[in-house]
Amino acid sequence: MQYQVPQFIEIEDKIFGPLTFKQFVYVAGGAGMCFIIYRFLPMPFSLLIVVPLGGFAGALAFYKVNNRPFIDAVESAVRFYLGGKLYLWQKRDKPPTPEEISQIPKGGIYVPKLSESRLKELTWSLDINETVSNNATMKRDERLQTFEGLPVDIFKKIGK
C-alpha cells in the first residue's frame, strides 16, 4: 500500500491575499497600535513612537534572519538578556603572603593554598611533592642514566 508523503510543509498557506495568517496578524496589530497612538498623542510625540513601532511590525511580518522568522531572533535576544549567565572560571593571581613565604624551605617551590578543604589540599600537595621528588630523583640519578648504552656524562663532556 502506498502513502502520499506531504511536501512543502515549511511553507505556510496564504490566507489573506499575499499574506499568511501570522503576517496578517503582525501587520494588522502594528497598524492598529500605530493608529491608536497617532490618535491619542500629539503629532511630534506620536511620530517618535509610530515610526519604530511600524518598522518593528513590518520586520515581524516580512524580515527573515538566516532564513528564520524575525520573531525567533527577538525571542532569542530577550532570553539572552533576561536569562541567567553562568561563569565557570575566572583566574585570579594571588601573591603569597609573608607567612607563606617564610614557610617555604630554601630551594623549595611555592605551592599556593588552593582551598579550605583538607582533602583537596592533601591531593594537591601529593601531586606537587611527587613531581618535585621525581625531578630531584632524576637530577640525582642522572649519572646512572644512559643513552644507547653510553653514560650521559660522556655527552656533556663532548658538548663542552
Describe the protein.
With 160 residues, the chain is mainly α. The chain has 2 domains: 14-82; 98-159, no CATH class. Helix content is 56%, strand content 8%. The protein is built from 6 helices and 6 strands, in the order ββααββαααββα. It has helices at residues 21-40, 43-62, 70-82, 98-103, 118-140, 152-159; strands spanning 14-16, 19-20, 64-65, 68-69, 146-147, 150-151. Helix 1 (21-40) packs antiparallel against helix 2. The longest helix is centred in the C-terminal third of the chain and has 23 residues, at 118-140. The radius of gyration is 36 Å and the shape is elongated.
Globally, the shape reads elongated
**Poorly predicted ranges (pLDDT <50, ≥5 residues)?**
none
What's the number of domains? 2
> Separation of termini?
88 Å
How would you write the strand order of the largest sheet?
Answer: 1-2
Radius of gyration: 36 Å
Helices and strands, in N-to-C order? Answer: EEHHEEHHHEEH
Average predicted local confidence, pLDDT:
79
Note the main sheet.
2 strands, antiparallel
The chain-level structural class is mainly alpha
Question: Briefly, what is this?
Answer:
With 160 residues, the protein is mainly alpha-helical. The protein has six helices and six strands, in the order E-E-H-H-E-E-H-H-H-E-E-H.
How would the blueprint of this fold be written?
Layout: E1 14-16, E2 19-20, H1 21-40, H2 43-62, E3 64-65, E4 68-69, H3 70-82, H4 98-103, H5 118-140, E5 146-147, E6 150-151, H6 152-159
List key phrases describing it.
single chain, 160 residues, mainly alpha, two-stranded antiparallel ribbon, 6 helices, 56% helix
